[in-house]
Every structure is written in structure tokens, then in C-alpha cells.
Amino acid sequence: MSLAIYSWNVNGVRAAARKGFLDWLNSAQPDVLGLQEIKAHPEQLDPELRSPGSYHSTWAPAARKGYSGVALFTRLPATHIDIGIGDPAYDQEGRTIVADYGAFVLINSYVPHGSRDHSRVDFKMGYKERLFQLCEGLTEVGREIVLVGDINTAHREIDLARPRQNKNTSGFLPREREWIDRFLDAGYIDAFRALHPEKVAYSWWAYWGGARDRNVGWRLDYTFVSPGLMPCILEARIHKDVTGSDHCPVSLKLDIDLD
User: Fold this and answer.
1) What positions carry a catalytic annotation?
2) Residues of the chain with pLDDT under 70
3) Using one digit for the tens of pLDDT, what is the confidence trace for 20-30?
């Protein structure tokens, strides 16, 4: 079967809803949708946004209201869903949902930002290490994984419009980029880059200075798969024309049997 998996940092799910999020959802009809930076608790949402249509929703808000948080909308029956990465320091910020679909385990992740003054880079790298350990633990017992989300890092110079000017900016620091190198060296696959090795495409643009209109952006949002799923990839896309957030959705289409 063809399975459409989407990921989108909505920069506030209530704000995205006011900008047409539910219309987009009804049009795109993802089978699985991971949201990041929801900035809301489910009890703050209208019913149609909390659990829209045919989707089962899982919410992992941050303890601090109006901050961070992830959610998962799925039309597929998951055998099990876990909230969190197993470390209270990160889990109180609502950064991870893990859903088991049998044929694969999906991880929806919102990696912390390192901050302009680099004050949170160590925190960010600690989360990335826990994320790597989670993926390795699953693959070591024979599970296939799909990791989606806002990784908050542009991997290579092709992945941001102004690499020279941002060499000392969190999101493009060597140690942040080296984590992706290590992840790929372990066998995981950046689906978009595997299918489009030379394509310049971004998934985030600053709100100021007309950055989106001028396409001065960064590729911060990813769909990764474990090696066994590489033959299943039909498509990997960045939907730059979808507005409603400073990020746009990214998607992965797999040909996979869930039985």
C-alpha cells in the first residue's frame, strides 16, 4: 500500500488553524502527520482541531503553556504509542512521540533550538544523543524506523541560503551538523536528499525581511528512514507553497505492507 507521512512545524497549532490548517489537512489527507511546536494543550483546542475527522490524535504538550510541544494525527491503527524520549529534562518540553505501526516505528521529534547565544546548544546536543540512542535501540532489535520532524539543523551548505554568514549560528554549527553525519554514517537515510541530491530546497524562512518571498531559507525539517525502508520510498517532498507557518510541511511516501 502507498502510505503518506507528513511532518510540519506549525509554530502554534491554533495560529495555523486560523490560517487554514484544517483545510490543508482535508486536502493533503496524510495517513500520518507529525506536528511540532504546537504551543498548546489539547484542552485549549476546539474539538475539530483536537481530533479532526477520521484522525486519531496524540498530544505531547510542554509543561510550560504556549511553548514547544508535538502532536501526532494518524488514520492508521498504531499498536502502541509512547510519549517522550525517557528523560524528564526533554520530556517536560514535549519533544517526542513514538508510534509503533508494526512494519515500522515512527518517531516524531522536535529538536531544541540552540539559541542565538548558544546557551542551549549543549541541551540540544544532549537531546540529539538521546534521539540517536532511541533509533539505535530500535534498529538493534530488528525494527525499521521513520524519523520525522524539525531537527533544527541545516546539514550542508546546500541546505541554507547563506552558509558563510551563518557558520557561527546555531543550526549550522559544526557539532550540530556532525550529528547528522554520524546519523547517516550509522546507515540512516535522509530521504529527500537521497532522492534529490543536488536540489536546493528549504523548509523554514524567517518572518522578517521578505525571506520567504526571496527564498532565503534553511532546510531544517527532515524525513529519515532506516536502511531497510530505502527500497520502499516512492517520494520525498518539501511543500514550499504551503503557508500558515514559518516552516512548510515535508513528506515521505512509502510503498509498504503494514500487515
Assistant:
1) 150
2) 259
3) 999 999 999 99
Residue 247 phi, psi dihedral angles, 5° rounding: -100, 160
The Cα angle at residue 159 between residues 153 and 164, in degrees rounded to 5: 90
Q: In CATH, what number is assigned to the domain containing residue 115? A: 3.60.10.10
pLDDT at position 259 is 65
The alpha carbon of residue 95 and the mean position of all alpha carbons in its chain are separated, in whole angstroms, by 10
pLDDT given at position 257? 87
The parent domain of residue 107 ranges over: 2-255
Query: Of 240, 239, 223, 219, which Cα lies nearest the Cα of 163?
Result: 219
Q: What pLDDT was estimated at residue 1?
A: 82
Cell of 172: 549550522
Count of domains in the chain?
1
Residues ≥6 apart with Cβ < 8 Å to 110: 9, 36, 37, 68, 69, 70, 94, 95, 96, 149, 150
Provide the phi-psi class of 68: left if phi over 0, else alpha when psi is between -120 and 50, else beta.
left
Beta bridge partners, 107, equal: 98, 147
* Beta pairing class for 221-225 and 189-190: antiparallel
Distance (Å, rounded) from C-alpha 229 to C-alpha 78?
18
Please state, in angstroms and rounded to a whole number, the distance separating the CA atoms of residues 89 and 46.
Answer: 29
* Model confidence pLDDT, tens digit, residues 184-230: 999 999 999 999 999 999 999 999 999 999 999 999 999 999 999 99
Task: Extract the runs of DSSP E, i.e. beta strands, from 119-227.
Answer: 145-150, 189-190, 204-205, 217-218, 221-225
